[in-house]
From TrEMBL:
Keywords: Coiled coil. SUPFAM superfamilies: Peptidyl-tRNA hydrolase II. It comes from Candidatus Nomurabacteria bacterium RIFCSPLOWO2_01_FULL_40_18. InterPro entries: DUF2000 (IPR018988), Pep_tRNA_hydro_II_dom_sf (IPR023476). Residues 11-38 form a coiled coil. This is DUF2000 domain-containing protein.
Length: 77
């Protein structure tokens, strides 16, 4: 299911909560569209504080009911 978040701040909140719940996550950041080099993405991201990273998307994997609860405030795409 694809849902939209109103801001990167909301994506960070979901990311933090997913980590607390020990769910697996994949992140999509601004750096991933600015360069095709995974090495550069890692270097740029590592040089930033968590709050400085612009999240464009987050994939959350886990039990359906847990993920749905976590994303319940988001609108379906």
């Amino acid at each position: 299911m694809i849902k939209t978040a109103p801001s990167g701040k909301e994506l960070r909140r979901i990311l933090d909560k997913a980590k607390e719940l020990e769910l697996e996550v994949d992140k999509f950041t601004r750096e991933m569209i600015e360069t095709t080099s995974d090495k550069k993405v890692m270097e740029i991201t590592a040089s930033k504080n968590f709050d400085e990273i612009e999240y464009l998307g987050v994939l959350v994997y886990g039990p359906k009911d847990v993920v749905e609860d976590l994303t319940s405030k988001l609108k379906r795409y």
